[in-house]
Design brief:
Radius of gyration: 15 Å
Helix content: 10-25%
CATH class: Alpha Beta
Strand content: 35-45%
Largest sheet: 5 strands, mixed
Strand order of the largest sheet: 3-7-4-5-6
Number of helices: 2
Number of strands: 7
CATH topology: hypothetical protein tt1805
Distance between the termini: 18 Å
């Protein structure tokens, strides 16, 4: 069960094309997914915040993992058309400045892109947990 505080407003699920069936399916709008993700991070005492606010309904999400030692990685969600699975893949990793430059290029290409920064010395991001694919 999802508990919302008095300042949180749930947005109804968006309808998106289902590539397997050629029909519309119900999925979470991006802003709702982002808020749920940030809440899950906060419950594990992991710092996470929105760096760039994309389209509320259908913006893609890029997650930057900052290990606070000068290094970082950026993950993006990928969709496997053959299996229908969604998974997070590494877009870029290395020195934080290089990762930031890659994120800037992605934002120039896709202005609807959300960027979430996660700060954790252990590199935890929780994206491999159920419900975050």
């Amino acid at each position: 069960m999802l508990l919302l505080d008095k300042n949180t407003h749930a947005t109804p699920p968006a309808r998106r094309p289902d590539p397997k069936a050629g029909t519309m399916t119900v999925g979470l709008v991006t802003s709702f997914w982002v808020q749920a993700y940030l809440t899950r991070l906060r419950l594990r005492d992991i710092q996470g915040f929105v760096v760039a606010h994309g389209d509320n309904n259908a913006g893609a999400v890029l997650v930057k993992i900052n290990t606070l030692d000068g290094c970082a990685a950026a993950l993006q969600r990928s969709f496997d058309l053959m299996s229908g699975d969604r998974k997070w893949i590494e877009l870029v990793a290395g020195q934080e400045g290089e990762v930031d430059a890659a994120i800037t290029r992605q934002r120039e290409f896709d202005p609807d892109l959300w960027v979430i920064e996660v700060e954790d010395r252990q590199g935890r991001h929780l994206l491999d947990e159920p419900g975050l694919q």
